[in-house]
Design a protein that fits this description.
Layout lengths: L1 H12 L6 H12 L9 H13 L7 H10 L11 H16 L3 H12 L20 H21 L7 H14 L5 H16 L8 H22 L1
Length: about 230
Amino acid sequence: MILLNRWLLFLEAIGACGDSPAVFADLDRRYREPGRFYHTWEHVAECLADRDAAHDLCDTPAEVELALWFHDAVYDPRASDNEARSAALLREAAGRLGIGTNLADRAAGLVMATAHLAGTGDSHGPAAGPVSARDAAEGASLARDAAAIRDIDLSILGAPPARFGAYEAAVRREYAFLSDSEWRTGRSRVLRIFLGLPRIYLTAAFHDRLEQQARANLAGSLRRLA
């Protein structure tokens, strides 16, 4: 009920005029699908709370919030296109809600910024080549929001050890179709990718607050897997 109230107030604030309860019902069905143990409403609620706390990091907070509602709406641990399908769902829902194309397109782009392993290390900045001053400014704004939503989505990595352990156990349950050997191999590869990054968190605020704990959590998990 709390999330539904927030959803309705948010859509009212951005001028949506469609059937918002029906769109929420579809999201609710998705986030409650059997087999989800981490990528649930709890994760969305934690992301929204982080967005509130990180409001000053976002140039377009409305686009960031809309992206967070949809960023894991499609989740199949066997698939590699969850973010693309979630972004497409956002665009389709935006049409039903009467949300402007520009806002929807920016929010869909921010959903794609949560595809961490597909684009690890990407700056999410504007494409290289000649651009106008306006395009450059819009690209810089999108890059800043992409960094913010990426850090919000990854904040669990820097959680206190007990919370991080619960997250890892939940993700393991989502990958129950893998054998223990397959899980250890695949998960270890993911952890090494993150530990190999110059910095896990792109924004100064998240880096200063969570980087050290995230690296300790990931290194500890890697040792346990070994």
